[in-house]
Write a structure and sequence with these properties.
TIM Barrel, DUF72, globular, 9 helices, alpha/beta, UPF0759_sf
Length: 297
């Protein structure tokens, strides 16, 4: 088996801070991150999705965590096609005379501004990369991005802009995985040198993709979103049962046999549930594998 790194998709969201998962004595941002890193060896920094962090901030993340800790960083949402608050852009890149409460898309900016946003995003990654703590750049594409020539170009362009850093692609429209299209999508990512992000999520929605396990590049990546009935309304409340986690532990062991490193992230971030499920899954993965056949995926 390859190395399995496990963590959650946040360490500082408001519900987590209010949940009691952190001891009362842990009160500072650096202290919380250090405590988190004593429990997990991986985290997804989703703050990069909402705004590009300052290099001083990411340097502080690196300083607060031990050697061997890894950050997977979500790319700034505007760069992957998400509407983004104008106020989230650096002030010098905002169009003149536009209400900062409005949302923009990438097409609303000149290409030189997009280039500069990528440049600044990479500058924010430099401290983590220099400390040997950068995992993947996670490219999360919006659920309305259906398969097609233009969409393929958009995905490949974003992967290329990750430069020498490992890119991980999460697609959230079923059209990428219908019939034989699944093999085409995986082949596309493999040829581009990008990791395919497997997701466990509610099924039967426009944004639903199957929990297809595959390795297209290093590291392999699996993200757990849960099966909340309110997924399309943004609800993430979900508790994985022991049976579900036992089943997934077997699948993850099987997947890790095809990868040098596997990143596993719990994204059921509601009042510490991701951390609790993550800790339980870590226990199952560290236990001896049961002597029984794996379920078909």
């Amino acid at each position: 088996m390859g190395v399995i790194r496990l963590g959650t998709s946040s360490w500082a969201d408001r519900q987590l801070l209010a949940s009691g998962w952190y001891p009362r004595s842990v009160r500072t941002p650096a202290g919380r991150l250090a405590y988190y890193a004593s429990r997990f060896d991986l985290v997804e920094a989703d703050t990069g999705f909402h705004a590009i962090p300052a290099a001083e901030t990411t340097a502080a993340w690196a300083a607060a965590t031990p050697d061997g800790f890894t950050f997977d960083v979500k790319a700034f949402g505007l760069l992957t096609g998400h509407p983004t608050r104008l106020a989230a852009l650096p002030a010098d890149l905002r169009p003149d005379g536009v209400d900062v409460t409005l949302r923009l898309r990438r097409r609303d900016l000149p290409e030189e501004a997009v280039e500069e946003l990528w440049h600044r995003f990479h500058q924010a990654l430099d401290p983590l990369d220099g400390a040997g703590k950068l995992g993947t750049v996670t490219l999360g594409f919006p659920p309305w991005l259906a398969y097609g020539p233009a969409a393929v170009r958009r995905v490949l362009d974003a992967v290329e802009r990750c430069q020498h850093r490992p890119a991980a692609v999460e697609l959230r429209h079923h059209s990428w995985f219908e019939g034989t299209r699944a093999a085409e999508t995986l082949g596309l990512l493999r040829s581009a040198g990008a990791s395919y992000v497997c997701v466990d999520m509610p099924q039967g929605l426009e944004s639903s993709v199957p929990p297809l396990l595959a390795v297209t590049a290093e590291p392999a990546v699996v993200r757990f979103h849960g099966h909340s009935d309110g997924w399309e309304r943004g609800a993430k409340e979900y508790t994985y049962s022991d049976r579900e986690l036992e089943d997934w532990a077997a699948r993850l062991r099987h997947l890790s046999a095809d990868a040098d490193e596997l990143h596993v992230l719990m994204n059921t971030c509601c009042a510490g549930q991701a951390q609790r499920d993550g800790e339980r899954l870590a226990e199952l993965l560290s236990a001896p594998a049961p002597r029984r056949g794996l379920r078909a995926v």
